[in-house]
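We were asked to recover a plausible sequence for a given structure. The inputs and outputs are reproduced exactly as logged, with field labels preserved.

PROBLEM: sequence recovery
POSITIONS: 96
GIVEN STRUCTURE:
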């Protein structure tokens, strides 16, 4: 069994993820590519002390990029969208 810190790499902070968090209580995370939904659920519950209702995962494919004559690809990664129980919240920002 992996550590929760190894499974959850970072939260995804975008306008869309902020809207999902406020309106639908869904939070987005960048996760380890080999992690499954059960591991992600357990890691989020342990790290943030919340109750997870469901986990949806997306494998983000690499995109082609070029710089002048050189061509390459971005890294592939995995995204997880986690739905929390009503009343539970995760605070990513410090209160100001």
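RECOVERED SEQUENCE:
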């Amino acid at each position: 069994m992996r550590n929760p810190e190894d499974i959850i790499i970072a939260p995804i902070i975008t306008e869309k993820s902020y809207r999902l968090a406020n309106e639908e209580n869904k939070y987005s995370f960048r996760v380890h590519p080999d992690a499954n939904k059960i591991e992600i659920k357990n890691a989020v519950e342990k790290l943030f002390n919340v109750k997870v209702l469901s986990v949806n995962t997306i494998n983000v494919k690499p995109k082609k990029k070029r710089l002048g004559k050189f061509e390459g690809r971005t890294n592939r990664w995995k995204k997880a969208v986690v739905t929390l129980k009503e009343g539970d919240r995760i605070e990513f920002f410090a209160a100001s």
